[in-house]
Amino acid sequence: MKRLDEHQLAVWRAFVNAHAAVIERIEKDLSDQRKIPLTTYDVLVALYQSPDKKLRMTELAKHVVLTRSGLTRVVERLEREGFVKRERTEEDRRGAFAVLTREGKKAFLATWPTYADGIKNYFLSVLDEDERAAIERGLSKIYRSLI
Amino acid sequence: MKRLDEHQLAVWRAFVNAHAAVIERIEKDLSDQRKIPLTTYDVLVALYQSPDKKLRMTELAKHVVLTRSGLTRVVERLEREGFVKRERTEEDRRGAFAVLTREGKKAFLATWPTYADGIKNYFLSVLDEDERAAIERGLSKIYRSLI
DNA sequence: AAGAAATATTTGCTTAGTCAAATAAATGGG
DNA sequence: CCCATTTATTTGACTAAGCAAATATTTCTT
C-alpha cells in the first residue's frame, strides 16, 4: 500500500470514533447504575475465568490494558473495596496472587448485564451479519499481528 | 437480538483488543520519534483544518475526545510549547479562540508521516478490501448512531 | 555455595484528565 | 433597562495510570 487516501483514512476514523463513542456510552451507563468501571471489570473477569479464581499480578496484567504498576494501583483499590485480596505464596515469595473474593464475584456478576446491554445496544445491534463477520475477522487479525 | 453468545462477544473483543493494540503501537512510535502524542495531534489537526486555523474552545472540544476542562489543560500545555496561542475576541469576550501558530503547524506536519505509517502498517495493511469496506460501513453507522 | 543476573512487585514522582464550582460575559423577559 | 438565566471558559481538588528506581526473592554460574 502506497499512500493513504481519503477512503482509507475514513476507515481509520470510523474505527477510532466508534471506539471512543461506544466506550464512553458504556462507561456512562455503568457509572449511572453504580456498577464498577470497565478497567476494574476487566480485572475481575480475568480472575473469574482463571481456574482457581486467582492470578499472579504479572499474568493478570497481561489480560488487561494496564502496565504492571498500573495494575498494582487497581488491585490496591479493589482490595480496599473488598473485591479481591492479595495472597502471598510460599512457592515464590517475591510476588503475590490477586484472588477474587465472594464480594468481587458479586460485583462482577452484577455488572455484566449492564455491560452486555451496552455491547448489544451500542455496538452489535447496529451491525448486520456481514459486518459483524468482517469486523471480527479483520480486527482479530490486527490484534494477533500486534501481540 | 436476544442474548450475547460467544460469537458475538468475539466481535466485541476483537474490536476492543485491536483498538488498544494499534493505539499503543502508534503512541510508542510517536514517542520514540519525539513526535507529539495523539491527543495533542488531534487538537492541532482540528485547528489546521478549520478555515482560519482557529476555533473556539467549545468547538475544538467537539473535535477531540476530551471534556471542555480537559481541553483547557491541553491548550495550556500547547501554548506553553508554542504550538497554539489563545486569542480573545471583542465579539464575545467570554471565551477565546485557540489559534494554530507556525510552530504548531510545523509540529503537526512533522507528526503526520509517523502517524500515517502506523495507520498503514498496523491497521490498514492487515485488512483486505472487503474488511476495510465492512469496517468503514459498520463502524461509521455505530458512530453516527451515538453522537 | 557466593555473588551476579534475572524476575516479581511496589513506590515515589509526575502527568493527563475529570467533575463540580467559580468567574465572566451575553441574552431574554417583564 | 435591570435582573435572571444561559453560555463560555477556567480553576481547584482529585483520581487514574505511567515511568523509572527501589525492594525482595529466586535462579544461574562457576
TrEMBL record, chains A, B:
Q: Which Pfam families match?
A: MarR (PF01047)
What SMART domains does the record tag this protein with? HTH_MARR
Biological process annotations from GO: response to stress
GO terms assigned for molecular function: DNA binding; DNA-binding transcription factor activity
According to the lineage, what is the superkingdom?
A: Bacteria
Q: Which intervals of the chain form a coiled coil? A: none
- Keywords for this protein: DNA-binding
Q: Which residues form the HTH marR-type domain?
A: 1-144
Stored InterPro entries: HTH_MarR-typ (IPR000835), MarR/SlyA-like (IPR039422), WH-like_DNA-bd_sf (IPR036388), WH_DNA-bd_sf (IPR036390)
SUPFAM superfamilies given in the database record? Winged helix' DNA-binding domain
Any keyword Membrane?
A: no
Protein name per the record: MarR family transcriptional regulator
Q: Which organism is it from?
A: Cohnella terricola
The top of its lineage is: Bacteria, Bacillati, Bacillota, Bacilli, Bacillales
